[in-house]
Each structure stands twice: as structure tokens, then as C-alpha cells.
Amino acid sequence: MADTPKPTPRIRMPATAKAGEVIEVKTLISHEMESGQRKDAAGQVIPRKIIKQFTVAFNGREVMAADWAPAISANPYQSFFVRVPETGTFEFTWLDDDGSVYKAEHKVTVG
Amino acid sequence: MSSHFGKISRREFLGTATVVAATVISGAPSAHATPDAVAAEVKKLFGDKKILEGKIKLDLPTIAENGLVVPLGFDVESPMTDKDFVKAIHVFAEGNPNPQIASFRFTTMSPKAAGAVRIRLAQTQNIVAFAEMANGDVYTAKKEVKVTIGGCGG
To answer: Which residue among A62, A70, A79 sits closest to B115, beta carbon to beta carbon?
Structure first.
């Protein structure tokens, strides 16, 4: 449990869209989301370590953000909806309790 | 010889694990949030503002077999125009160790204030959501989820 692999983000959304089309974006990142409630075999509380914030930007403009509490399940999944105004790149950022930042990008072409 | 030692340590380990599990289970109820804890959080966010019913659709199972992974969907009725959109949605648990579940903030880049996450529920409880509109109105909705196996601590 101490050595966990680096969280891997996964994004599912189309690569092309019509202008103004409503698109569902599904995101998932591998992360244990240690709640800070559990105890190890020696009865010691395992310290909290979760991804506390998830943000999405499109060409540098904020789209949506989520603040997560320990009540979010391990390997946090988040879906939401966007309208794509023009060709551009979505940037996804996950912020860990320990200050680590995990990033992913997804380009969408509007045609 | 080594297998003999292996057996003893395994038995000791299982014994310890049982004690730990029992402690966690017996210690759990007092550590849980209550509807009052949620009310305190709501007061911090909105003060004494009048809270209206409706507009929010919560998509949760009536019975969750595994409290570790409970799908939560939300959808707030709003045209999502520059003047009339949902600024934020806050979701709380009345029976988890902490009342907070998540807060979602939206912009007009979102065509609808909807989405989904997966949450942990420690026990059977109410999930309460609040939607903050651009004009300052606050709407609320509540749904009970029966949890067969709790998703926190144990």
C-alpha cells in the first residue's frame, strides 16, 4: 500500500464535434483515495491521501471544477457535459493532497 | 520448520486483524456525521438564506450493495445562459464520517449542470444536494440510500 503506482488519467470524449454540440466527457484516474478513516493492522490510522480537486479548462478558459472529499471512491470517476465552441484542447488537472499534480489533454476538432 | 513458523505468524496476524476489525466496527457509529453536521455546513455556505425545494435531480440507487462504490448522478434544471446558470452544486452525506462529499463548480461552457461521480457511503443515510444559481437562489434535494455493506473504515 505504501508504494502505489503513479496515477494514470483516462479521458473518454470524441475527437471531433460540431460547433455548439453537447458532449459528455468521462474521466477516470487511478488513485487509492485513502480516506484517513482506515486503520492498519497495528491500529494506527492510515493518513489521508486523496485527490482533492479536479479542474477542466478549454484553451486556458475554466470549464468546470470539482472539490472532492474522502467520500469519493477509489479511482475517482467524474463525468460532465461541455459545449465545444471551436477547435481546441481540453486540459484536465487533478490535485493530490501531497501537492502532486496529474495532467491530461484532449484535442477536439470542430468541423 | 519454516512452515511451522509461517502458520503461527499467520494465525497471530488473523487474530490481530479480527481485533482491529472489531474495534473499527464498534467505534464507528460515534464518528459519523449527522443531519446537524450537514446543517452546520449549509449554514457556513448560505447563512440563513431561504432554501427552495426542487430543480435538482439526484440519480442514486435505492439500495446500494457495496457502500465503497455508489454511483451518484446529478442534473440541475437550468438554461445555462450567461445570466441564468448553475454556479455550484454541493453534495453532503448525513451518515458518513465527514459530511462533505463533493462540490462542483460550473461555467457557461457547460451546456447543462449535470454529471456523475462514484461515492463511498458508510451506512444507510440521506444524500443532500444544494444548487447555487447565478441569481443567488439556492435549491435543495434529498435522497435516501440503503447501504448493505458500509464503505468507510472497516
So the answer is: A79
